[in-house]
Design brief:
478 residues; alpha/beta; Udp-n-acetylmuramoylalanyl-d-glutamate--2,6- Diaminopimelate Ligase, Chain: A, domain 1; UDP-N-acetylmuramoyl-L-alanine:D-glutamate ligase; Protein-Tyrosine Phosphatase, Chain A; five-stranded mixed β-sheet
């Protein structure tokens, strides 16, 4: 693409030579000849420190937000490199969002499951869907691993450009909003699932976290629709803020003016009210929280025009999401659950589900992520000790925190079992659990381990499967 034409996107007045840009990148290691390099200040690295490396690799123009002098190629200073990246990436790929129907889902818990449910319903109704989320990126039927819940602006625009699907379903994280990854994108539908104590190391406090989430709704089209879970204080607050907006909004809650209400929740069967009709909501997956996720998906699909009975039928056949309340049955009658839960509310959802399913004893295995929001840890421990019969603390991603330091903190939090090796912590819980007991393993979900542990497994799911396999081998030899 012509460099001068591309830079008109960020309204620069600098006159540049007539040159074709082959690519845009923020990674100096991926720069090739005739690339445009944008220097980003990241969490661990500052791209401005790698400008010379980018030039040596062939970058012919640099964009950044710091004062830089005497470079051998043009340097354009901008107020915000991330915003410039979003605008330039959109222009480079031909503003691909303009031709898409985009569904954005934000909130602390439930984004992934709600996204998968919507995709399942829409595809059963004959629509095609791309999905950008924390588990996988799915485009034109092909699946790729995801690096972030919300892709960086460059990859997001590239994904949009290659997608031939009718709908884009996007999990929108608070980091993605704050860092301008969705800048320039407008949404046809915006969903708010809930808000819980999380990421306050980044946002400062709950109010700041909430206001960041709320910014997604500033990006709804005038003819768009917001769908809000009003059955929590933050959802009610957001609904109040949206009263004067041009777009429409509907709510899930327990009040008379809510579009959808949940009348009752029982294992495998719930009842909702929608437009004056009481409807049975049957799910193949467990958990009160999944009833709320299903209700959000129901409202979204109904606004798109999928018939109610078809929505209900699709929800009955939804089989779940990798790492989201995945259930395994052990030969001795123990139920094992692997879930991504990493907040107190998410813990409560998992542990309460086990209780309502008639669990004998509940064993809860989890850890804390190093160098992350430590202010939520007390709530996490409190809810675990309240609802679980035994809490087993173990290591999660350390993120640079020395293992000994994290282990010491775990021992201070828990007077019971602390087992540093995550695979052995899971093994310990499964060995203690008897018939009708439940083992809930939270925090990692679908994510791979970043450390090597004793058992030959790379994730919580693989650890559980390895232990269950050795069970079967042992039983067959008896």
């Amino acid at each position: 693409m012509n460099l001068q034409k591309l830079l008109q996107t960020i309204r620069t007045q600098i006159s540049l030579p007539d040159r074709i840009i082959h690519n845009i990148t923020t990674n100096s290691q991926s720069v090739e000849k005739n690339d445009l390099f944008i220097a980003i200040k990241g969490y661990s690295f500052n791209g401005h420190d790698f400008i010379n490396q980018a030039i040596e690799a062939g970058a012919v123009c640099i964009i950044g937000e710091e004062d830089i002098q005497e470079l051998p190629v043009p340097y354009i200073k901008v107020p915000n490199s991330r915003i410039a990246l979003s605008e330039l990436a959109s222009a480079f790929y031909g503003n691909p969002a303009k031709d898409k129907k985009i569904i954005g889902i934000t909130g602390t818990n439930g984004k992934t499951t709600t996204a998968y449910m919507i995709k399942h319903i829409l595809e059963n109704a004959g629509h095609t869907c791309s999905m950008f989320g924390s588990v996988n990126t799915i485009i034109n039927g092909d699946t790729y691993p995801s690096l972030n819940t919300t892709p960086d602006a460059l990859n997001l625009q590239k994904h949009l450009a290659i997608s031939n699907d009718e709908f884009i379903i996007m999990e929108v994280s608070s980091h993605g909003i704050a860092q301008g990854r969705i800048h320039g994108i407008t949404f046809d539908f915006g969903l708010f699932t809930n808000l819980d104590h999380d990421h306050l190391d980044y946002h400062g406090d709950m109010e700041g976290y909430f206001l960041t989430k709320a910014k997604m709704f500033e990006k709804l089209k005038d003819n768009g629709c917001a769908i809000i879970n009003n059955d929590n204080a933050w959802g009610e607050k957001l609904s109040g803020m949206l009263q004067s907006c041009a777009f429409s909004f509907i709510t899930l809650g327990n009040k008379e003016n809510d579009e959808l209400t949940i009348n009752k929740i029982t294992p495998g069967f719930s009842e909702i009210s929608y437009k004056g009709r009481n409807l049975p909501l049957q799910l193949a997956i467990l958990g009160q929280h999944n009833t709320y996720n299903a209700a959000m998906a129901f409202l979204t699909a109904s606004q798109i025009g999928v018939p109610v009975q078809q929505i209900m039928k699709s929800l009955r056949t939804f089989s779940g999401v990798p790492g989201r309340f995945e259930v395994f049955r052990r030969s001795n009658g123990t139920t094992v659950v692997v879930d991504y839960a990493h907040t107190a509310e998410a813990f409560s959802n998992c542990l309460t589900t086990a209780k309502t399913q008639g669990a004998g004893k509940v064993f809860h295995v989890f850890g804390f992520r190093g160098d992350r929001d430590a202010s939520k840890r007390n709530k996490m421990i409190t809810i675990s000790k309240k609802l679980a019969d035994e809490t087993i603390l173990t290591l999660d991603d350390l993120n640079g925190v020395p293992p000994a330091a994290m282990l010491q903190e775990l021992k201070e939090w828990n007077e019971g079992q602390v087992i540093s090796d995550r695979t052995l912590a899971i093994q310990y819980a499964l060995e203690k659990a008897k018939e009708n007991d439940w083992v809930i393993i939270t925090g990692k979900g679908h994510e791979p381990y970043h450390s090597k542990f004793t058992l030959p497994a790379n994730s919580d799911k693989e650890t559980v499967e390895y232990i269950l396999q050795t069970d079967n081998i042992y039983n067959k030899t008896l």
